[in-house]
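Sequence design from tokenized structure. All designs in this work follow the same two-part layout: the structure record, then the generated sequence. An example of the structure record is given first.
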């Protein structure tokens, strides 16, 4: 069984689910949520309506860190650099809260989050126009990704070389 994070008294699409007992017996894993719409929840004007962070930061520490990573990349890609910086700061604060004992199959979550951190730094540097620094961070992300133990599914799902190659191409460096 599970409970949901909504305070409305009813389950709605996108609500995070939290186990009430043992997570595996409840069938709820970190970041499990009710069905979500196919597109982002974007109002016509104003900020997006992100799904709230899980209420249990100890259980969902990796999910919280990855959420901040994703927010940082999304804000940077849309030119919202102040929010991107805030998300990166939140990511950097969240990473040390992930215990070294946390694994995603064969990979430690710390190793996976190191790839995320390098990707996020590269994305922000690129959006600031500091291309050499951006490409250095992205090359580091590639090296960290390559060093992850083989796993299926991959420990880091976003291909680091795709971002690196696309941004190099955009700058006419290939």
């Amino acid at each position: 069984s599970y409970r949901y994070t909504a305070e409305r008294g009813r389950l709605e699409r996108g609500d995070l689910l939290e186990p009430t007992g043992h997570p595996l017996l409840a069938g709820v894993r970190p970041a499990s949520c009710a069905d979500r719409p196919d597109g982002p929840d974007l109002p016509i004007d104003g900020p997006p309506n992100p799904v709230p962070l899980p209420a249990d930061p100890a259980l969902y520490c990796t999910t919280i860190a990855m959420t901040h990573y994703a927010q940082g990349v999304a804000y940077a890609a849309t030119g919202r650099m102040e929010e991107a910086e805030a998300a990166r700061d939140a990511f950097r604060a969240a990473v040390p809260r992930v215990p070294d004992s946390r694994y995603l199959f064969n990979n430690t979550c710390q190793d996976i989050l190191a790839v995320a951190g390098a990707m996020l730094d590269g994305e922000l540097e690129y959006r600031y126009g500091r291309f050499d620094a951006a490409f250095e961070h992205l090359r580091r992300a590639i090296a960290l990704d390559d060093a992850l133990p083989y796993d299926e599914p991959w420990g880091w799902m976003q291909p680091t070389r795709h971002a690196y190659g696309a941004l190099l191409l955009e700058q006419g460096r290939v």
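The longest strand covers residues 2-4. We note this feature because it recurs in several other targets discussed in the main text.
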